[in-house]
TrEMBL record:
It catalyses: a UDP-3-O-[(3R)-3-hydroxyacyl]-alpha-D-glucosamine + a (3R)-hydroxyacyl-[ACP] = a UDP-2-N,3-O-bis[(3R)-3-hydroxyacyl]-alpha-D-glucosamine + holo-[ACP] + H(+). It comes from Maritalea myrionectae. This is UDP-3-O-acylglucosamine N-acyltransferase. GO terms for cellular component: membrane. Keywords: Acyltransferase, Lipid A biosynthesis, Lipid biosynthesis, Lipid metabolism, Repeat, Transferase.
Length: 340
C-alpha cells in the first residue's frame, strides 16, 4: 500500500465525487448509495488492499488474484469475470480502461503531496542519532530520522519521512526521497535515491504520467556508486538487498528487486519490475528488460542484454543474451562466415 509517511492522501474524498472529478462519472452508475459515499483511505496492490483502498486489475487473465482480495475498491475490465465475493468487503467496478482510471484517481488523491515531495527547508532532522556529522547546506523534509554515526556530505537533500540507519556514509550532492536506508550503507557523490520512476500511459494528446507512489529500500551494507539512480516503485518497493554493491552510473528502474551480495558494474541498466537473485554479477553496460527475472548466482557478461528470464547458475552473454557456450559457438560461426 502507499506509505502515508511519504505521501499524504487528500482527505474526505468519496468514491462518487472522485469519479466525477476525473470525468468518469458514468462508472458511478454501478454504485449504490452506500458505496458512493465510501471515502478513500489509500491505494495499493491487489489482493493486499485494506479497507477502502484503491486498486486495479488491468488484464482479465490476472483476475484469479482478486479471489484473495477481502477489502478495497478494485477497478476491473468490462469483460472481467468476477470472483465469488459473498464473504468479501471488496467492491469491483467495471471500466473500459482500469489502468487509466486508476491513474486519474491517484493523481487526484496524491497530486498535491507529490508536488511538494522534494521540498526540503529544515536544517535539522526530527530524530538525530549520536555522533552524526552534517556538512554545510544539508536540508531535510519533515519527519526525517538519522541513526548513530552517520556522515552526510555537503549540498544534500533528504526528503520527507526518509529514515537513515547507523554508520551510513553519504557523499556530496546526493538526494534521497521516499526511502528507508539500512545500516552501514554507503551512497557516493551525486547519487539519486527514490526519484520518480519512468512510467507513462499513451494518450492522443501525449503521454500521461503515472504517479509513482512506492518506496526504495536499501538494506544493510549496500553501496551505491557515484551518479547512480535508484527509482522508487510505482506502488510497491524498489529493493537492493543486503551487501549488494552498485557501481557508478547505474540506472535501477521502478519496482526492481536486486538480491543479496550482488555486484553491478558501471553503466548497467535495470528496466522496471526486473528481478535478480542473490550473488548475481553484472558486467559493465549490461542490462535486463522489464519484468525479466534472473536466478541466484547468474553472471551477465559486459554489454549483454537479458531479454527473458533465466534460471540460476547461468552465465549469459550477447544481445539478446544466451548461455555463454552458445554465444561463443555463434561468434565462432560468424567469424568463419566472415573469412569465407
Amino acid at each position: 500500500m502507499v506509505d502515508q509517511r511519504f505521501y499524504a492522501i487528500k482527505q474526505n474524498v468519496c468514491l462518487a465525487d472522485a469519479l466525477s472529478a476525473i470525468g468518469e462519472g458514468a462508472i458511478g452508475a454501478q454504485l449504490d448509495k452506500k458505496d458512493a459515499q465510501r471515502v478513500f483511505t489509500g491505494a495499493g496492490t491487489v489482493p493486499f488492499l485494506h479497507e477502502n483502498e484503491l486498486g486495479f486489475i488491468a488484464d482479465s487473465k490476472y483476475m484469479e488474484v482478486a479471489a484473495d482480495c477481502a477489502h478495497g475498491v478494485v477497478l476491473v475490465a468490462e469483460d472481467a469475470e468476477l470472483p465469488d465475493v459473498q464473504a468479501s468487503d471488496a467492491l469491483y467496478l467495471r471500466c473500459s480502461d482500469p489502468y487509466r482510471t486508476f491513474t486519474g484517481l491517484l493523481d487526484l488523491l496524491y497530486g498535491d503531496s507529490l508536488r511538494l515531495l522534494g521540498y526540503c527547508a529544515e536544517t535539522s532532522p526530527k530524530a538525530l542519532g549520536n555522533g552524526v556529522h552534517l556538512a554545510p547546506n544539508v536540508y531535510f523534509g519533515a519527519d526525517v530520522e538519522i541513526g548513530d554515526n552517520a556522515v552526510i556530505g555537503p549540498n544534500c537533500s533528504i526528503g520527507r519521512g526518509v529514515t537513515i540507519g547507523h554508520n551510513v556514509m553519504i557523499g556530496d550532492n546526493v538526494s534521497i526521497q521516499c526511502a528507508h536506508i539500512g545500516d552501514n550503507v554507503v551512497i557516493h557523490s551525486g547519487a539519486r535515491i527514490g526519484v520518480e520512476g519512468f512510467g507513462f500511459l499513451p494518450r492522443a494528446d501525449g503521454p500521461q504520467k503515472i504517479p509513482q507512489l512506492g518506496r526504495v529500500i536499501l538494506q544493510n551494507g549496500v553501496e551505491i556508486g557515484a551518479n547512480s539512480c535508484v527509482d522508487r516503485g510505482t506502488l510497491d518497493d524498489t529493493i537492493v538487498g543486503e551487501n549488494s554493491k552498485i557501481d557508478n552510473l547505474v540506472q535501477i528502474g521502478h519496482n526492481t528487486k536486486i538480491g543479496r551480495n550482488c555486484q553491478i558494474a558501471a553503466k548497467s541498466g535495470f528496466a522496471g519490475s526486473s528481478e535478480i537473485g542473490d550473488n548475481v554479477l553484472f558486467g559493465g553496460r549490461a542490462s535486463i528488460v522489464n519484468k525479466a527475472k534472473l536466478g541466484d548466482r547468474c553472471v551477465v557478461m559486459a554489454c549483454s542484454i537479458v531479454s527473458k528470464s533465466q534460471k540460476s547458475d547461468t552465465i549469459l552473454a550477447g544481445n539478446p543474451a544466451v548461455e555463454v557456450k552458445q554465444w561463443r559457438r555463434m561468434q565462432a560461426k560468424l567469424k568463419k562466415m566472415g573469412r569465407d
